[in-house]
Design brief:
CATH class: Alpha Beta
Structural class: alpha/beta
Order of helices and strands: HHHHHEHEHEEHEHHE
Largest sheet: 6 strands, parallel
Number of domains: 1
Helix content: 25-40%
Distance between the termini: 25 Å
Strand content: 15-25%
Number of helices: 10
């Protein structure tokens, strides 16, 4: 396993008012709505999730960095587990023409509202039971998805990523290193079920036989 950070520059571009997030609307009610992963979560008010998640090209530098690091080439197969609207997956197809990109997400809304060019390569499904044969993909990625699972489902999802990957894997999850980051994470999140320190996440990876790369998102 190796810690490789492709996302921090993108994550830090967003300004977050943690106290407003907690005080502006009942947090429990907002979480209930967000966990439907429907229109309100993706394109509704900010208190329910993204506050409107539209394509703006911000994922292109991430895709290019990942393509260089993993040496992606025409004919390689890439799977995004928890692809959402698949903007990153689309950018990977632009960065490396000729790759076969596949995305899976639990949200029917996200898949049906994904970027038109990549939509035929997406399907609705659950990370705990990936509908693909063993060793199917040269790169499996999962970006800010697995922390939304309870521990039993997290165990299954990690093992599924290991099963379908044949070369490289890369996971990004939310984490905290101190009490301030823990509080900010709890204030900001709407859908998380697994709250772990980096050391605990690494324990999970080892437990499930995950030997791929990873990075953590912190709410500083």
């Amino acid at each position: 396993m190796a810690s490789i950070d492709f996302l921090s520059p993108l994550h830090r571009k967003t300004t977050r008012d943690y106290l407003a997030r907690v005080n502006e609307f009942p947090k429990a009610e907002a979480a209930k709505i967000a966990k439907r992963f429907d229109a309100e979560y993706w394109d509704g008010d900010r208190k329910y999730g993204y506050g409107g998640y539209t394509y703006d090209g911000r994922w292109r530098p991430v895709a290019e960095a990942m393509a260089r690091h993993y040496g992606l080439k025409r004919g390689d197969r890439v799977l995004d587990v928890g692809c959402g609207k698949a903007f990153l997956l689309y950018e990977l197809t632009q960065a490396v023409p000729g790759i076969e990109a596949v995305g899976l997400d639990i949200s029917e809304y996200a898949v049906s509202h994904a970027k038109e060019e990549i939509r035929p390569s997406l399907r609705v499904g659950n990370a705990t039971d990936l509908p693909f044969p063993d060793d199917s993909f040269d790169l499996v990625i999962s970006i800010t998805t697995l922390h939304n699972l309870y521990c039993d489902d997290l165990d299954s999802a990690l093992r599924e990523i290991v099963r379908v990957g044949r070369k490289n894997e890369y996971i990004v999850v939310e984490s905290y290193r101190n009490e301030e980051e823990k509080a900010n994470l709890l204030y900001w999140q709407l859908t998380c079920e697994s709250f772990y320190t980096p050391r605990e996440w690494e324990w999970w990876f080892q437990r499930c036989g995950y030997e791929g790369d990873y990075s953590f998102i912190y709410f500083e």
